[in-house]
Amino acid sequence: MGNDAPSATTNLEEVDYGAVQASPEFQRLRRTHRSFVFPVLGACLAWYLAYVLLASYAHDFMSTRVFGSVNIAMILGMAQVVTTFAVTTWYVHYANKRLDPLAEEIREEIETGDFQKQGAR
Amino acid sequence: MRHFEAAASTSPGEPWLNIAIFGAFVAVTMFIVFRASRNNKTAADYYAAGRSFTGGQNGTAIAGDYLSAASFLGIVGAIAMTGYDGFLYSIGFLVAWLVALLLVAELLRNTGKFTMADVLSFRLKQRPVRIAAATTTLVVCFFYLLAQMAGAGGLVSLLLGIGDQLGQAVVITVVGALMIVYVLIGGMKGTTWVQIIKAVLLIAGAGVMTVWVLALNGFDFSALLDKAVEVAENPAILDPGLKYGVSDTSKIDFLSLGLALVLGTAALPHVLMRFYTVPTAKEARKSVVWAIWLIGIFYVFTLVLGYGAAALVGPAVIAAAPGGPNSAAPLLAFSLGGPLLLGLISAIAFATILAVVAGLTITAAASFAHDIYASVVKKGKPEPGAEVKVARRTVVIIGIVAIIGGIGANGQNVAFLVALAFAVAASANLPTIVYSLFWKRFTTKGALWSMYGGLASAILLIVFSPVVSGSETSMLKTDAIDFAWFPLSNPGIVSIPLAFLLGWIVSVLDKTPEDPKKQSEMEVRSLTGIGAEKAVSH
């Protein structure tokens, strides 16, 4: 965008954030973020809620012995721990692979002055 | 294996040995705090440790902040006494981290500076939102502090054999005074180092005890459970429902507790503030991942330790011991390794309380000095150095309040008290955090209604709950006074949805929309990290 200014640092006060927000790159980042975070968190909370409801209202089922004295309640509790670890690992992988590069790209565009307000320079 | 006579009100260990171990810990950490604090100059140094910690260090510190007396003394005691129902605390406290990881941590790091109010007031009207956020921060920190100080009281009575109320009050005062010194000298950097050391000690200590308990049972978890059933003379301690399954009301109470636990973490001001001590959002993400692994592993230990305490010490002995359920973990240590292990584990538990109290105090002080003094009273232009000075004075005041509150709350189960702090945090803070990060139409009025509405409803429902009045086991300790018309002991199931609803309805009805430019800036900054506060280089 023909930024001939000698200084490479852009004054962040003069960035047109509305234009950044409307840009297709940013909309893609927003979509990529939300389309992961909302459904995954929703599923995890539903799974947790199901566990709490079972522990509260399905005593007989939860008390079923599986091996030795270990019952279903303990196994489901451990399963909650395992899913928490798994989702954490999954999210980190997703964020490093899909979110960070997009954010990086937009940051660079802003810093090179692509989104300066009209007449700011 | 040693047995502790429940009838004796004296300490099972050697009080002087306990004091020596504890004194050594204080000396070592004090030295580290002194060294770490030499570079404390600016507000960013004092509140955010110059944003210079790595993800791994900060994650360990988060675990140190989070694994409070509630997690160690409280959960082990709850599992030993009420069996499986106590384990819900562990699961809830852990799953809650997914909300923090997926929704809050990175976006918060990108948009804020020192406190939760920085983020909440970013695109709304500064003054009213800041005051509201600082108020909820102070109240949540106060509830959390109460729980920690109550744990300190119970632990001391067990360790030093101090049974009388006056003696315990003196020791709570000493703990409070020590904490004030740590925070005054060390600021966030010193506090963070104390958290890191304590997290390592706590997880290692719990790990050793877990392996030991399992080894005594031939590494057969099922055999340990059988033994717990035998000693407790109650097979129901393995199944859910022992505490919360007795009536329809108590089942709903269990749901309410579960909801408060899972939604509270991402709204705890002292946890949120930790995300500012790292240089970037990516390090914030890394620190949450570290924290989740450490915390998760620790909570698996609590299951073994809880049933271990039931099997090796027995619920009857624990109930009769000074400190009640909170003494299950130290008593288990005594039964495993005698006075020396009791001394070590208790010193770790003490360190836990001290470190968490320090973290809470610095959060509350930062919120008061930064949000109320610097931003509201001085309109964002405090004299140089004045803000940190005010923060230090606030530390002393909060310390004194915590000491008085701790003496009052002495004897309650700590995990239970912390769950109340979680309910207050989830009601007062979470809706506004989520809406301001993700919902364009959110307005100042919506934020104020949601925060004050959530805070007031949570607190009123606690005041009128069976926790405060109506029975011998309530805070008033008599059944003569009974104003407990709200049947649940945790208000979460009512106050959290109410706060979400208030924020939504009031924003939708609000005819004065917020500045769309600020919303654009906040969304762009939160997702890309542009313009985020950088690390301080010395």
Outline of the structure:
With 121 residues, chain A is mostly helical. In chain A, 69% of the residues lie in helices and 4% in strands.
Class from secondary-structure proportions of chain A: mainly alpha
Q: Can you tell me the number of structural domains of chain B?
A: 1
At CATH level 3, the topology of chain B is Sodium/glucose cotransporter
In N-to-C order, the SSE pattern of chain B is HHHHHHHHHHHHHHHHHHHH
Question: Considering DSSP H and I runs of 4 or more, what fraction of the residues of chain A is helical?
Answer: 55-70%
Low-confidence stretches of chain A: 1-8
Q: What do these coordinates show?
A:
The complex is a heterodimer of chains A (121) and B (538). Chain A has helices spanning 17-22, 24-57, 59-62, 72-111, and strands at 65-67, 70-71. By secondary structure, chain A is mostly helical. Chain A has a two-stranded antiparallel sheet with strand order 1-2. The longest helix of chain A is centred in the C-terminal third of the chain and has 40 residues, at 72-111. Chain A is rod-shaped. Chain B has one domain (15-32, 43-528): Up-down Bundle (Sodium/glucose cotransporter). In chain B, helix 4 packs antiparallel against helix 5 (84-111), helix 7 (126-159) crosses helix 15 and helix 10 packs across helix 16. With 538 residues, chain B is mainly α. Chain B is globular and about 65 Å long. Chain B contains 20 helices and no strands. The chains are: A mainly alpha (121), B mainly alpha (538). Chains A and B meet through helix 1, helix 2, strand 2 and helix 4 of A and helix 5, helix 9, helix 10, helix 12 and helix 20 of B.
